[in-house]
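Dear colleague,

Thank you for sharing your sequence with our group. We've completed the structure prediction you requested, and as agreed, I am returning the results in plain text so they can be pasted directly into your records. Please verify that the sequence below matches your submission; if there's any discrepancy, let me know and we will rerun it promptly.
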Amino acid sequence: MISPRTGVATATILLLAGCGGGGGGPSPTTSNAPPASAAPADPTAAFDTAEYRLNTGLKQINASAAYAKGFDGTGQTVAVIDTGINTTLAEFAGAIHPASADIITERAGPAVIDLDGHGTAVSSVIASRKNGVQTHGVAYNARIMAIRTDAYTSVAGQSSGEFLTEDIARATTYAVTNGAGIINYSLGGEGVMPINLAAALSDAASRDVILVASAGNNGKDTVTNLIAMWVTSADAAGHGIAVGSVNSANQISSFSNKAGSSANFFIVAPGEAIRAVDNVGDAVTGTGTSMAAPHVSGAAALLKQAFPNLTGAQIVDLILRTATDLGAPGTDPVYGRGLLNVAAAMAPVGTASIPTGTTVGGASVPLGTSSLRLGAAFGDALDGSGALRNSIMLDDYQRAYTVDLTSRVARPQPQHDLVNWLGGGRNFDTVAAPVGSIGQASFSDRTTERRTVEPTRQGSGRSFSFSSKLGTDTDIGVAAGRPMAARFGVDADSPVTLDTISGDPARSAFLGLADSGRNVSIRTDLGDGVSVAAGFASRREEDYLKYGDSRSWSDYGDREVVMGEVRKSWDGGRVGIQLGQLTERGSALDSSGGSAFAFDAPVTTRFGGVFAALDLKLVELFGSWQYGTTADTQLGNGLIRRLSGVRSDAWTVGFARNDVISSQDRISISLSQPLRVSAGRAEINAPTGTTADGTVLRESGTASLTPSGREIDVELAYRILLSEKDELSTGALVQTSPGHIEGAAPAFATAVRYKRRF
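Please find the predicted structure tokens below.
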């Protein structure tokens, strides 16, 4: 013990060079370390060099996760209040902060030297250079502000090995004044905290400096070191960490003090046989909590460089929160918060969000609910959007991470539903009954089943329909849960009746986007084979719940469609024209999104189409073309701000022939393109970075909504009447670029269906 230099009573702190109780001191090894290994071919292992492996602690704390991201402590200053440092060593070339000093003014000699080796060893664990020799520190490009603070001795070449609290207080103030962001205290000692040291530590905490203190080598069940106790108390305001030691198997070292009552701000780090450099440049292995603490100080420097927007208190909380849990689950009295884990601290923590405001910490929406389900007509559109691919997300600490938001875009499946064609998609248990003399009503219990690449999704509900004749020429229908499209399809008694997987060419693809909710329709015969029809259909949230649709409500939005048709039919065929308007709220051409992808304005699409089916006796020809224009729409303040110039179309051509093999059969071949966006752009406004002052950087641009792929369906269908009640159908469908996705493998489908009428 050293008596105070002055007549004022002070507490004395014992040096912890791993030489405190139960630790053992640094032991020399060799100064001739093997040369650095050649860079491995695998970029992910680029930092797994011989130099890296020599310090097993680096791997133990997953330090390479920071190096792989380009962080090495550059620009960060760590003050080491200790026995000084040998400034001439190559291991510290460019690492010594110019404010490094000997705080003991009475001592003669250079401004800062190290007669003990402890300060140099501690500093080397933090920031010795990555130069292919010896080993490198945790933050190998940080700067060390070495503040020699060991008590005065007049014996040349010796260190007292002791520190006076008044000198530690002055050193702390000096470090803060000269810009240190982190202070490492690999010191230990017990007693009563002096007022001057407490004041200096409190001032450092108030200036947002991170305070890291070794827990001590007394093998006790709680932290007893003065500084370590203080930095884990409420007085530190969350700016301090006490560090215990573990061995290479992540077991608490026998000599290390345990967390005890300081568990909330206690962490463990490697502290046994840690490779370091002493004051003469020799490689040594150090053991003690003095070796554990600089691992945490170096990690704090990496995090300060990586995330300059974080306060010191936030970095402390981050280190503690991301520690690997050891011992009893959660915070425990042995390991505290657990083992230092740089990789976990570098990774996003908590709930990821997408900033929608102008500043970090401003308005944001959860990433987890930010998704876009593209309608089938868009195919692989947006896949090449650079802004979406290079966006950022924020974690609980408002740290920015690059994220590919195109991964949040669900690509469509092919539009033709083989399951429904077979009759397995919708099962009805229907009860129909006349309603007096005015018409007929039907009620159905319905089970809906949709099979996609996802697991089969089911729903159930009830449906209702009512139809009535007004006079001899007019039919009116009202329905809920049943599609209105059937009233605009092929008449059952038409001379040209199609029954194909790809559907009836006379059925509007646009009408199908809003159908099966509530609808009302009317058709009237004007004579001479001319008929007109009109209808209105709407789909609301409650409809999806009530009628048991297989998709969730979030997949859609409110939709309304109004449509009219004029048709001319005769013995040899039919032609017709359709006009309508589709209004969607929360979606656009069946595309819908949540949170950052939400559509906050109604989207209107006007559409039209023509169809024809002609019986040329030997062969029947049929075809249709549908075309829609979507109004330019300002969608809101999400990632997709505006739609413009959106055009879409669908078409079918084919032929059919009756009486091919028998007098009761029919064969048809068709070529079709399902609804596809043929033109259009989306204005993208995505967050792509942040500035040091917390401003969110955004990139605006446009992305094509036209898919690069084009689905073309070729279908062969055959049907034969086996009897008046029995019918057998078979179909084969080939889809190229299914879903309008370029490069998608062709899809093939075949089916056989048997029907019997009762």
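Summary note from our side: Residues 289-306 form the longest helix (18 residues).

Kind regards,
the structure core
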